[in-house]
């Protein structure tokens, strides 16, 4: 028998248009609320002001790339404190795990930017073209002048939203009112125009046209989430034991006892923003927005049957319910051991960051030792090492500070601004406001001093006080290096350096 000819199938399936119907209900209202809050935060946050005094920006949330600062209300993060940002990113990641563990893919269904902007664009569709059936008719209609006009109007609105979205993004990186003036007068940096152009295009394209394809094919998060879901995770579930066999009200009336509660009205499919049929079981295309629950609850109310044919449920609870047990209240399903573990980790990181923020001082000392040469033997036999100290003053006023040696008996230090004859155990200086002040420091220890660790101690000498302390290492010649040949060569090489020092 001959093998049948292979059937050619493409790897790419053409997108079927999704025209979700308008629906009202508990979850739709929740989506409205979350959409309003998230969009208000995104568009409005750069315009919030926060008084930080005369020498700092007054924008509440600002990523100040030019001055390498991140401001969030009373918090100011310097580049050296990037661990705070890293901590926040880790919290955001664990927060997503926590939300997924507690309430399934709620992030996808309610708060993900792709979901929020797609929802916004779908409302524009309904506003311009009408509800689902009108949109379907227009989609299938030939390209008449009226259809072209409607499309141009709709895409123009998309473009305005997309441009506003891209424009809002750059406001987080510069003073918003100033940037708006510069942008429209053509004086903003080219990167500002480029960023707005890129974000306008991506918002227009991803929200206006790609929509559910981003969730189903492009975004990695649904894959990660589906790997995280287990029998205790809340998902949107069609209760087939209650709904099947499907049949219309007429069929059910003719043949009582044969049909379940699902009257096969397809309302759950019609409202779905990703165009799937939840009655086929859990699937990656379901973002758990719960609009199908609203649709089905409304149908059940109309035909006088109990709500919840489609509902949030865990697989474990669904199995129990199928066996005849009453459904477990949702609030009880949220709390299970995995959720508590995530909550514990998330809270611990948050508490750690808050503690670090609350206890950090506004001055800081970093030391960098000269590596080449590690030491020099001076003409009087004493040994000298050199460092670059960085004194950080995070306050908006100059602060008097003192650097002291702790340990290293008999050693003295001096800086580029003074001679060795003025050397002592401490150095005093004023660090300008909001500055990292570099300071070259030379430390000389008596002849015979061995290699050892010691500390530089920084202290603010004003009423506010505070300080920092950093350990470093003093290098000196070792006894086993002390051969005459080495010594001579070292003396010869070091002579030039010494002469420079004495000249200084
Ligand atoms: S909305 Fe409810 S009754 Fe209608 S098809 Fe969907 S599951 Fe069945
Ligand atoms: S199946 Fe229901 S919950 Fe899932 S995406 Fe569609 S409407 Fe939302």
UniProtKB/TrEMBL annotation:
Origin organism lineage: Bacteria, Pseudomonadati, Pseudomonadota, Alphaproteobacteria, Sphingomonadales
**InterPro entries under this entry?**
4Fe4S_Fe-S-bd (IPR017896), 4Fe4S_Fe_S_CS (IPR017900), Cyt_c_oxidase_cbb3_FixG (IPR014116), Electron_Trans/Redox (IPR051684), FixG_C (IPR032879), Ig-like_fold (IPR013783)
Q: Name one GO cellular component term.
A: plasma membrane
**Could you tell me which residues belong to the region Disordered?**
464-504
List the SUPFAM superfamilies: 4Fe-4S ferredoxins (SSF54862)
Q: What is this protein called?
A: Cytochrome c oxidase accessory protein CcoG
Q: Which residues form a coiled coil?
A: none
Chain ranges of the 4Fe-4S ferredoxin-type domain: 250-281
Q: Where is the composition biased (Basic and acidic residues)?
A: 466-477, 484-504
Q: PROSITE patterns recorded for this chain?
A: 4FE4S_FER_1 (PS00198), 4FE4S_FER_2 (PS51379)
Segments spanning the bilayer are 32-50, 82-103, 155-172, 192-210, 340-358
Q: Pfam families attached here?
A: Fer4_18 (PF13746), Fer4_5 (PF12801), FixG_C (PF11614)
User: Whose protein is this, by species?
Assistant: Novosphingobium piscinae
Question: Gene name, please?
Answer: ccoG
Per UniProt, the keywords (alphabetical) are:
4Fe-4S, Electron transport, Iron, Iron-sulfur, Membrane, Metal-binding, Transmembrane, Transmembrane helix, Transport
| GO function term, MF aspect, one | metal ion binding
């Amino acid at each position: 028998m001959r093998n049948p000819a292979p059937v050619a199938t493409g790897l790419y399936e053409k997108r079927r248009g999704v025209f979700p119907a308008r629906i009202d209900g508990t979850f739709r209202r929740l989506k409205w609320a979350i959409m309003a809050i998230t969009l208000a935060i995104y568009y409005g946050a750069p315009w919030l002001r926060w008084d930080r005094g005369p020498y700092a920006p007054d924008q509440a949330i600002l990523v100040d790339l030019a001055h390498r600062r991140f401001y969030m209300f009373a918090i100011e993060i310097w580049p050296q404190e990037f661990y705070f940002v890293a901590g926040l990113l880790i919290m955001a990641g664990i927060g997503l795990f926590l939300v997924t563990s507690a309430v399934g893919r709620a992030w996808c269904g309610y708060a993900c930017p792709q979901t929020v902007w797609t929802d916004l664009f779908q409302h524009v569709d309904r506003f311009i073209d009408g509800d689902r059936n009108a949109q379907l008719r227009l989609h299938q209609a030939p390209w008449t002048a009226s259809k072209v006009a409607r499309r141009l109007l709709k895409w123009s609105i998309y473009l305005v939203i997309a441009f506003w979205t891209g424009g809002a993004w750059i406001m987080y990186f510069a003073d918003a009112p100033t940037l708006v003036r510069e942008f429209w007068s053509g004086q903003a940096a080219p990167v500002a125009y480029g960023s707005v152009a890129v974000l306008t295009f991506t918002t227009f394209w991803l929200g206006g046209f790609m929509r559910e394809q981003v969730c189903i094919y492009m975004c990695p998060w649904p894959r990660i989430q589906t790997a995280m879901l287990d029998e205790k995770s809340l998902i949107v579930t069609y209760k087939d034991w209650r709904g099947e066999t499907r049949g219309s009200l007429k069929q059910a009336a003719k043949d009582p006892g044969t049909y379940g509660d699902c009257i096969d009205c397809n309302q759950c499919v019609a409202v779905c923003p990703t165009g799937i049929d939840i009655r086929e079981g859990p699937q990656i295309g379901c973002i758990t927005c719960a609009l199908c629950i609203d649709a089905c609850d409304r149908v059940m109310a109309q035909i006088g049957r109990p709500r919840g044919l489609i509902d949030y449920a865990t697989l474990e609870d669904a199995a129990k319910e199928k066996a005849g047990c009453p459904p477990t209240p949702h609030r009880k399903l949220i709390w299970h051991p995995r959720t508590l573990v995530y909550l514990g980790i998330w809270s611990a990181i948050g508490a750690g960051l808050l503690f670090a923020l609350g206890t950090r001082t506004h001055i800081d000392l970093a030391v960098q030792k000269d590596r080449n040469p590690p030491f020099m033997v001076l003409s009087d036999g004493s040994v000298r090492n050199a460092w670059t100290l960085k004194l950080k003053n995070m306050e908006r006023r100059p602060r008097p500070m003192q650097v002291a040696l702790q340990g290293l008996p008999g050693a003295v230090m001096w800086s580029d601004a003074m001679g060795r004859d003025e050397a002592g155990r401490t150095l005093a200086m004023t660090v300008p406001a909001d500055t990292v002040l570099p300071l070259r420091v030379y430390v000389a220890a008596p002849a015979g001093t061995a290699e050892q660790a010691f500390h530089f101690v920084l202290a603010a000498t004003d009423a506010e006080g505070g300080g920092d302390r950093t350990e470093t290492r003093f290098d000196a010649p070792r006894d086993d290096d002390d051969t005459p040949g080495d010594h001579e060569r070292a003396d010869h090489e070091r002579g030039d350096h010494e002469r420079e020092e004495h000249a200084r």
